[in-house]
Design goal:
The protein has helices spanning 5-18, 45-61, 76-85, 96-104, 112-115, 126-129, 155-160, 172-186, 199-210, 230-245, 257-265, 279-286, 322-341, 343-355, 370-379, 392-395, 411-427, 433-451, and strands spanning 33-39, 65-71, 91-95, 142-154, 189-191, 216-219, 222-225, 269-275, 293-297, 307-316, 403-405. Strands 3, 4, 5, 8, 9, 10 and 11 form a seven-stranded mixed beta sheet that branches. Strands 1-2 form a two-stranded parallel ribbon. Helices cover 46% and strands 15% of the residues. By secondary structure, it is of the alpha/beta class. The chain has one domain: D-Maltodextrin-Binding Protein, domain 2. The longest helix is centred in the last third of the chain and has 20 residues, at 322-341.
């Protein structure tokens, strides 16, 4: 991939804009462009080795680019601080929900001229591409993965409770019953729920979607919060019953994404809801025993029900200069995208992961289309090392479920409004749900109005 048309085009544009061919501040005296790229924090050594192998391959193919790694994991609170402090890596990741806001506020680099030159630029699923694009359809951030929410469950705890791990719950009533049975038989948490750092709102919204509700109505430029709804009350009632009537939700009610993963991987949680592609993080960051793992789809029970979907964007720091932006897009193309679009790259990535004992083949939703996704899996079939047979309740049904995008107006702010609602219901048996919902709807509407 040695200096590609992307780098050449960007360099030319930079020279024209500057009116002279001066060296960029990002370049060393020998013409090397330096960038930092995000690597997940807390990885086991095998995962670090696999990542470093890919960096070495990239630098060999691009001797004019020097890559340094920087530990980075997106959370709502730390991301905001890093963004304000200018401490993000050159290439970092963010959820789909942040894309449009980051673009509108100019908080990421405008790499749309570079992404337009990528050979697969026109092949993205339109709903996926929109997450990283501005109002005119220019792609500022590249969608690198997508997911639909799933129910993760511990097969070992299922068996200990007398449940069949090959026949996971297919209704919310069955989830409640299984949680109660797990808690009673094993003493572990039957069902756990994230509640902190905006994740409580994320999972509560997931449940509302699965019951046929929504948390907003969009009419042109107007967004109306719809928090106090029958579907929201049904979700809240379900949580209250599992917590207070069944005592099946344990005693930890301030979980975020990282801490719930830790406890699940440690065998202390029977079931929880999160993105369906979470196996890799559970394995590489939390030492999950593959034999324990099971995954199924969420029950969809309302007339307008659907599974909440989202994904991850790769973006470039607004502090990156032209050469760094070009190098960053080269890295995004090489590390995240080529394994989805080029057989040789897919095989090289899978081999590097498999050789270091890292997972290959965990389920994802297609960034492009299902045919392209299926083809990419076929390329790496010999390297797949995850227990796919334990995930078939998910993989055989997820493509038949209606996929719904996350709320679009003030998404993270509304999730933050819903966090204390979930926390209060789980910690106060006498919580005034009417008052909580009234306040949450007012606060959500204020957040939406402020974002308009």
């Amino acid at each position: 991939m040695k200096p590609s048309r992307i780098i050449a085009a960007t360099a030319a544009a930079a020279i024209t804009a500057a009116g002279l061919a001066a060296c960029s501040e990002s370049e060393d005296d020998d013409g090397i462009t330096d960038i930092t790229v995000a690597i997940d924090a807390g990885l086991e050594q095998g995962a670090i080795d696999a990542f470093n192998e890919r960096v070495a391959q990239f630098e060999e193919a691009n001797p004019d680019i020097d890559v340094e790694t920087q530990e980075y994991t997106w959370t709502a609170t730390t991301f905001t601080a890093q963004l304000a402090g200018g401490t993000l890596p050159t290439v970092f990741t963010a959820p789909f929900t942040d894309g449009r806001g980051l673009i509108e506020r100019g908080q990421i680099a405008d790499i749309s001229a570079l992404t337009a030159e990528l050979p697969y630029a026109g092949d993205f699923n339109p709903n996926v591409a929109a997450a990283g694009s501005d109002a005119d359809g220019n792609m500022w951030a590249v969608p690198i993965s997508a997911y639909g929410q799933g129910l993760h469950y511990n097969r070992t705890l299922f068996e200990a409770a007398g449940l069949d791990p090959d026949a996971p719950p297919a209704t919310w009533a069955e989830i409640r019953a299984a949680a109660d049975q797990i808690a009673e038989a094993t003493g572990e948490t039957g069902y756990a729920m994230m509640t902190n750092a905006n994740t409580g709102g994320w999972i509560l919204t997931t449940m509302v979607y699965a019951l046929g509700g929504r948390t907003e109505v969009i009419d042109g430029d107007t967004a109306t919060a719809t928090i106090d709804t029958p579907e929201m009350r049904e979700a809240i009632d379900m949580i209250r019953q599992m917590r207070w009537d069944d005592d099946s939700m344990g005693d930890e009610f301030l979980y975020d994404w990282g801490t719930i993963n830790q406890d699940f991987a440690s065998g202390r949680i029977g079931m929880y809801v999160s993105g369906g592609g979470n196996y890799g993080n559970l394995f590489t960051q939390n030492a999950l025993d593959p034999d324990d793992y099971g995954l199924t789809v969420l029950p969809l029970e309302g007339a307008e029900s659907g599974v909440l979907g989202g994904g991850t964007l790769a973006a470039v720091s607004p502090n990156a200069d032209a050469e760094q932006q070009a190098a960053a897009v080269e890295w995004i193309d090489f590390y995240y995208m080529e394994k989805l679009t080029v057989e040789a790259a897919a095989v090289a990535d899978a081999q590097a992961l498999a050789d270091s004992g890292q997972p290959v083949g965990a389920p994802q939703l297609p960034v492009f289309d299902k045919a392209t996704y299926d083809e990419s899996l076929a390329w790496v079939e010999e390297y797949v090392n995850v227990p796919l047979d334990q995930m078939t309740p998910y993989t055989e049904q997820i493509f038949d479920q209606t996929l719904l995008t996350e709320p679009v107006r003030a998404t993270q702010e509304v999730y933050a409004v819903l966090d204390p609602l979930v926390q209060t219901v789980l910690t106060d048996e006498g919580a005034d749900v009417d008052a909580l919902l009234e306040q949450a709807e007012a606060d959500a509407q204020a957040a939406m109005d402020a974002a308009a």
